[in-house]
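Archive record:
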Amino acid sequence: MPIEVRRAADRFRTTDAGRDTWHSFSFGVHYDPHNIGFGALIAHNDEHLDGGAGYPDHPHADTEILTWVIDGALHHRDDAGHEGVLEAGQVQLLSAGSGVVHTEFADRGEPTRFVQTWIRPDESGLTPAYSLGGAPGPGGSVLASGDDGGLPLRTRGAACHAFVLGPQQRQELPDAPRLHVFVVSGEVQLDAHTLDPGDAARLVHEGGRAVRAEGTAHLLVWALA
C-alpha cells in the first residue's frame, strides 16, 4: 500500500523500572517479522521516563541514534567522553560507529519524554561521533541529514524533519521514496486519514503530499531513500 497507517494503540509497549516505551517496530522481546523496520529506519521509540529513571550503561555499534527531547530533560554520558543534559526541544545525534557505551537518565526533578530513532549507517566500523542541535522553530526544521542540513547522519538519502504546525496550517511533506510520519502531539489530516498523537503513517512513492493540522501539532518525519 502506498500509505499505511499504524495506530498508537497497535504499537508494542514495554514498561519497566519507571520507563514506559512505545515501539513502532520490532524491538527487544517484541518481534513481528513483518514489522522490523522501514527502509534504513530500524527503531522508532516514544520514551516516557519517571524522574530519575532511565537506562544504565549499555552498548551500541554501527547505528545512528537520533534523540529529540519533547518534555523534561535527559542526561547523557558515554565512554567517548561526551556528557551533557538535553533540555526540552533539543536534539542529539550519537553515531555509534565501531562501538560506544552510554547512559540515559531523566532529570530527577521531572518526568521526561523523548522520541528516539535508530537508522543504519552506510558504512560500518567508523569512529564514534556525537553532536547536538537546537529546537525546531515555527514551521519546520531538518534535525539531521545524510546529505545537507541538520546534524550529520552517516546515511545518505536520509533526513529527519520536525514540523511545528499551527491550527489549520498546511505542510507539504518532503519528496522522497519513503516517508515515515509520526504525530508527536496534536491531530493532522493526511489524505483521507486522521492521525492522532502516537499514530504513524508510512508512505511509499507518495512524497509531496500535504498534511493539515487541526490544532497545534508536532510531527517527526523521516524521509528515506
